[in-house]
Write a structure and sequence with these properties.
signal; four-stranded antiparallel beta sheet; 4 helices; single chain; mainly beta; ELWxxDGT_rpt
Length: 984
């Protein structure tokens, strides 16, 4: 027992308590500390330039009186936004992929007043989401493809009370799914292609039935329909018995489905279906014989179906059909002599059909037809000559057509037409002497919404009622605030290194001591542009990183660089792969490049033309930067070293020697000392070890061994005999390996799959018996999506979803009873979207969204009351999106925006422990007594006690330097601070 921390004799402790109490009373207590709390501050506005930044609105979809769309505000990637057409009513709904990463909502569909869409977050990939227009009501419907992979929902289509879509699943492949808006009601409709993917496409709703194209693996791609049940999901007709008819270009008109298909005899032609085999037939063989007319863009207008097709003689021209062979005719050969007029953008207004076409003389211009050859004419030659003016399909707004066109003088702008040459006019020249590039045109409530660039605000959301005065910017979503966009923050002592871009927007290495004057460019690496900095890694007093010093043949490519923080001490270590290619193999841009330090030697995967991707090491000199071993020595094949982890003077990693598959390897830095630790999955399959983690000088990892060796958690002492299977947490379902291995005071916590509990929290002491499920956080077979596992003062903190509150902050002491949610930060099922967790002075800091302030900086002492917003950096519902956090000394650095300066470097230096163990805001004798009771062993210290009471020793500046122990030194410092003898 630590004699400093505990007292075995309570009587002397009681005497000390009485003595301290008397001393405190003589001093006239209580004494309170009056210093205000520390707040985050921007370190320096590195990029002071103002330049247009675009939010790039896209995917606009109306739901009631609200327009939903995707946009990026400069701090958050493309996320879900909404607008009622006013600046005040245009707001971020939710930062789904919290932080600067893209949520990219798309494929919108509305059902029962709720907007459904696919979106991505960093932990579950692209999945199905829904929104009622509020942050709290914007939630994941279901994680269909669990484990960070994406189900990528496509073609969301509403049929009555059911949402249909196609999705990817690890067992079924890409098949047809449906949802009622709940996780339980989001299910596979039918596994159409067993053992493969049917890949449903062209989903269309017809009279309460879903039609689509699919391939069951037997008939080829054919026309199918579904009522939402497995039994009611059937092929409509085997149109081409010899290999699939490949239905496409589907359109619904008059209760009939029109589409293109190839029956094997007539080529791709126009077909129709009423949902029965007998009612599914060829409308007309437009290009006679086996040739195809390839009809496309069919649109029903005024009792007829209009489309573009090629009969083999006139080229691609405008056609019409009443659904019969006789009623399927060419409207007009607009571009004669077999040339294509290629009509597109077909829309109806009054008794006319409007479209864009090229007559071979005037380029693509606006045309119209009444369905007769004589009544088919060009409306106006907006851009005289052969250039053509049309850049978008026309949209019908208040009895006129609005569209994007270029008259050759004003650039691409919004135009309108009433169907006459005189009534075809530019609405507004949004950006004089240039072009505003209107796009994403969408009509809502008799108003045209679109994206455009006025040359000042970038590409933003606009609207138009067809008048110049009514064509206005709705809101500048991404302000022109510049921003240096710091990333890859790395700490060296009290200094932080990072990549950032100044006014020239070229990224280089910067450093900061936390002051504006001390935040400086280290060196301009690439005088021609950005250095593509990556993998900033500190080894001792040296910063290693990847960078490119030039472009084209003058470049060395992406190579290993180092820096001591000075311009003179910053340079390429050596040109490992001579020429512009570099060591980052361009054929594998997403290959995970990891570094590990053993002493002053850094290990990393490097690429050369002769050896491929293999294990290298460097001592920071050109001579000391060498290939360790060509593990896969067959020709120029690669072993792809990954997950480099240092333990006991060696580096461990995963590699494939071309014979054994991906297995666990180790190296002492020599070729002879670089060897496979154990062939866990024999016969060349490879066990693909993951999550290499060191605890008590033992390497833990997960691996997919065979039935003999074991699938699940493993451990190794670096020898083959000492590489032992610990436990298979899911013996009947080998779909997911244990992940997020995190040691906390000699206990290994991790997430693992169990048949009955799903993917939940486990712990291990390294034995089979001691490897057990801690808690089924989301009861039943569902998974709590555990992530960001972090140990603090013997307690595990993590982010988890219990199925009720969404993803929130949790903690665990390793028991079911001690595994609890810390606080419901974002009330409801939405979840706080926590993106990272860091620890400073025993306190947790993280980025979270409470549904009111956006994604901001929070702190927690492990209690609900002590889990609070640190500061609303970007005031209001917008997000400052703190990202790329790193702790340097006792200061937290991160990138964020306050809405005025763009994304810049920020810091937060939390107040040191203040001795107020009770947390009541007053430093008094009760705090001294609490500290003394802990030392005496009378009271068990809590996380909050360590955060507030670990105040000793004091550093050279008289500030606490917590040592992780509450002892008599802390008692005395608390007492002295209470008496006013010391302060900080």
């Amino acid at each position: 027992m630590n004699s400093k921390r505990y007292s075995s004799n309570p009587r002397p402790a009681a005497c000390v308590i009485r003595s301290l109490a008397v001393l405190a009373l003589l001093a006239g207590l209580p004494v309170g500390a009056e210093a205000g709390p520390a707040l985050p501050v921007m370190v320096r506005d590195i990029n002071t330039a103002s330049a247009p930044v675009s939010s790039n609105p896209s995917g606009m979809t109306a739901n009631g009186g609200i327009l939903f769309f995707s946009a990026g505000d400069g701090a958050n990637g493309p996320e879900l936004w909404k607008s009622d057409g006013t600046a005040e009513g245009t707001a971020l709904v939710k930062d789904i992929n919290a932080g600067p990463g893209p949520g990219t909502p798309q494929y919108f569909s509305v059902m029962n007043g709720i907007t459904y869409f696919s979106a991505m977050d960093s932990f579950r990939g692209v999945e199905l989401w829904k929104s009622d227009g509020t942050a709290a009501g914007t939630v994941l419907v279901k994680d269909i493809y669990q484990g960070g992979e994406s189900s990528n929902p496509l073609e969301l289509t509403t049929v009555g009370e059911t949402l249909f879509f196609s999705a990817e699943h690890p067992v079924y492949g890409r098949e047809l799914w449906k949802s009622d808006g709940t996780a339980g009601g989001t299910v596979l409709v039918a596994d159409i292609a067993a053992e493969a993917s049917s890949t449903p496409q062209w989903l269309r709703a017809v009279n309460g039935t879903l039609f689509f194209a699919a391939d069951d693996g037997l008939h080829g791609r054919e026309l199918w329909k579904s009522d939402g049940t497995p039994e009611g999901t059937v092929m409509v007709k085997d149109i081409n018995p010899f290999g699939g008819s490949d239905p496409g270009e589907m359109a619904v008109y008059g209760g009939i489905l029109y589409f293109t298909a190839d029956d094997g005899e007539n080529g791709h032609e126009l077909w129709r279906s009423d949902g029965t085999a007998e009612g599914t037939y060829l409308v007309a063989d437009i290009a006679p014989g086996e040739e195809s007319s390839y009809p496309f863009e069919p649109v029903g207008i005024n009792g007829l179906l209009y489309f573009t097709a090629n009969d083999g003689y006139t080229g691609y021209e405008l056609w019409q059909s009443d659904g019969t062979p006789e009623g399927t005719t060419l409207v007009k050969d607009i571009n004669p002599d077999g040339e294509d007029s290629m009509p597109w953008g077909i829309v109806g207004m009054d008794r006319y059909v409007y479209f864009a076409a090229d007559d071979g003389v005037n380029g693509y211009e606006l045309w119209r037809t009444d369905g007769t050859m004589g009544g088919t004419e060009m409306v106006a030659d907006i851009q005289p000559g052969v250039g053509g003016s049309m850049y978008s399909s026309p949209r019908l707004v208040n009895g006129m057509l609005l569209f994007a066109a270029d008259d050759g003088e004003h650039g691409i702008e919004i135009w309108k037409s009433d169907g006459t040459a005189e009534g075809t006019l530019m609405v507004r020249d949004i950006i004089p002497d240039a072009m505003s590039w209107p796009s994403e045109l969408m009509v809502h409530n008799d108003t045209l919404y679109f994206a455009a660039d006025d040359g000042v605000n970038g590409t933003e959301l606009w609207k138009s009622d067809g008048t110049a005065e009514g064509t206005v910017l709705v809101r500048n979503i991404a302000p022109e605030t510049g921003g240096s966009l710091p990333y890859q923050l790395a700490a060296m002592g009290n200094t932080v290194f990072f990549a950032a871009a100044a006014a020239d927007l070229d990224f280089d290495v910067w450093k900061s001591d936390g002051t504006a004057d001390g935040t400086v460019l280290v060196k301009e690496i690439n005088p021609e542009g950005s250095a593509y900095l990556d993998r900033l890694t500190v080894v001792g007093d040296t910063l290693y990183f990847l960078a490119e010093d030039n472009y084209g043949e003058a470049s060395h490519g992406i190579e290993l660089w180092k820096s001591d923080g000075t311009a003179e001490g910053t340079g390429m270590v050596t040109d490992i792969n001579p020429g512009p290619q570099g060591i980052f193999f361009p054929g594998n841009p997403n290959y995970p490049f990891s570094m590990a330090a053993v002493g002053t030697t850094v290990y990393f995967p490097g690429f050369t033309a002769d050896n491929g991707h293999e294990l290298w090491k460097s001592d920071g000199t050109a001579e000391g930067t060498v290939l360790v071993k060509d593990i896969n020595a067959v020709f120029d094949f690669s072993s792809f070293p990954d997950s480099l982890t240092a333990m006991n003077g060696a580096v461990y990693f995963v590699a494939d020697d071309g014979t054994h598959g991906a297995e666990l390897w180790k190296s002492d830095g020599t070729a002879d000392g670089t060897r496979m630790v154990r062939d866990i999955y024999p016969d060349g399959i490879g066990s693909s070890p993951l999550s290499l983690t060191v605890m008590n000088n033992v390497l833990y990892f997960s691996a997919a061994g065979d039935e003999t060796s074991g699938y699940g958690l493993w451990k190794s002492d670096g020898t083959a005999d000492g590489t032992i299977f610990v436990k298979d947490t899911s013996p009947f379902n080998h779909s997911r390996l244990p992940a997020s291995l995190t040691p906390v005071n000699g206990t290994l916590f991790f997430a693992a799959h169990d048949e009955s509990a799903g993917f939940e929290l486990w712990k291990s002491d390294g034995t089979t018996a001691g490897t057990v499920l801690v808690a089924d956080i989301m009861p039943g077979e569902g998974s709590s999506n555990l992530r960001l596992l972090t140990g603090v003062n013997g307690t595990l903190f993590c982010v988890a979803d219990d199925g009720v509150h969404g993803e929130e902050l949790w903690k665990s002491d390793g028991t079911p009873e001690g595994t609890v949610m810390v606080k419901d930060i974002f009330p409801g099922e939405g979840g706080a979207g926590i993106t990272w967790i860091k620890v400073v002075n025993g306190m947790l800091y993280f980025a979270a969204d409470n549904g009111v302030n956006g994604l901001e900086l929070w702190q927690s002492d492990g209690t609900a009351e002590g889990t609070v917003l640190v500061m609303d950096i970007l005031a209001g519902q917008g997000s400052s999106s703190p990202s790329y956090p790193v702790v340097a000394g006792t200061t937290l650095y991160f990138a964020a925006t306050d809405g005025s300066h763009g994304v810049e470097l920020w810091k937060f230096s939390p107040d040191p422990p203040d001795g107020d163990l009770t947390g009541n805001g007053v430093l008094d004798i009760v705090d001294v007594l609490r500290a003394l009771r802990i030392v005496a062993g009378i009271a068990e210290p809590t996380v909050a006690d360590f955060i507030r009471g670990d105040v000793a020793p004091l550093d050279g500046n008289g500030r606490p330097a917590p040592d992780g122990v509450i002892d008599m030194d802390d008692v005395l410092v608390v007492l002295r601070r209470m008496l006013g003898v010391v302060s900080w």
